[in-house]
Write a structure and sequence with these properties.
Helix content is 33%, strand content 24%. It has 9 helices and 12 strands. The relative contact order is 0.17.
């Protein structure tokens, strides 16, 4: 069943060209909520906005690999939009320049329905004319993306990764029920984390990675970039090409994957405080750039 789900996602993936001078930044698992104590993203908001402004100014294309919005804990999009209006304004800048691609994950699977997406957009950006409607309403969330490397037959498969997590893909509404009406309040009132999350359940995390590795082996070592587990992963050349960008809710930091000039790197952004008490945003390379062709 899991292989069939991943096969279908691969077959139906949105195709995007990757050129020699292309620049991509991949983030996932923001879980933007309502700014309550159960909202894991709010502490990293300043870091994320600084990073995204940097990527926008430097001509990067942004690919969000799912769970950008926390729709398990929140039954409505409105409080999330109000809480993170500045983030959505940033995304709009990327979107206007065709530099935004969004993938849905298990915590925002509602976005796989384009009618729901259109209703949300209409409530936020009511179009004034036909051109405005075309611009706003061509926003789509994809299940997966295939980056097609220019002048080759090589591809990079990008998906959230819950396709390898049967309960979170097939029975996501069941999982959402318990998170929304039980674990949300346990986290909000007592600080108890949701044990159904792959990111907080080590056995589930390992199981997802093993299933994706098996799929890679069966499919001619097809390179994958995914999220879902919140655990950064960057193989060495020769290992199975399974990459994970980590998440944007690590304590005091966010991690992501960059592809620049056909090289791939794992990066971390965080806020550094000097001995004098001055704060500055810092980016470091957790894994230095390596040619994509060493994994393809």
């Amino acid at each position: 069943m899991v292989n069939q789900i991943i096969d279908r996602a691969f077959k139906n993936a949105k195709k995007i060209p990757l050129k020699k001078d292309s620049k991509f930044i991949f983030f996932s698992d923001l879980h933007k909520g309502d700014m309550s104590s159960a909202d894991d993203f709010k502490k990293n908001l300043r870091i994320y906005e600084h990073a995204m402004n940097n990527y926008y100014q430097n001509g990067f294309t942004y690919i969000e690999i799912g769970d950008g919005t926390e729709l398990w804990e929140n039954s409505s999009f409105d409080p999330i939009y109000k809480a993170y209006h500045s983030v959505f304004k940033l995304l709009k800048l990327f979107h206007k320049e065709n530099r935004l691609h969004l993938i849905w994950g298990n915590h925002d699977m509602e976005f796989r329905d384009p009618i729901i997406v259109e209703k949300i957009l209409y409530s936020i950006y009511s179009p004034k004319n036909i051109e405005s409607k075309k611009r706003h309403f061509n926003l789509r969330f994809e299940e997966s993306i295939l980056l097609e490397i220019e002048n080759t037959d090589k591809k990079i498969f990008v998906l959230h990764g819950h396709q390898a997590d049967y309960m979170n893909y097939v029975h996501w509404k069941f999982q959402r029920f318990f998170v929304r009406y039980f674990w949300y309040y346990m986290q909000k009132w007592f600080g108890i984390n949701d044990p159904t999350s792959a990111a907080k359940n080590f056995r589930s995390l390992i199981k997802v990675e093993k299933k994706l590795n098996k799929w890679i082996v069966k499919n001619k070592h097809q390179m994958i970039i995914f999220g879902h587990t919140h655990r950064p992963r960057f193989p060495i050349p020769g290992d199975l090409p399974l990459f994970n960008d980590g998440s944007c809710i690590h304590p005091g930091s966010i991690t992501g994957i960059e592809i620049v000039n056909e090289n791939i790197a794992l990066v971390k952004w965080y806020e550094e405080v000097s001995n004098e008490g001055q704060k500055k945003m810092v980016k470091i390379e957790l894994e230095k750039p390596v040619s994509l062709f060493k994994f393809l």
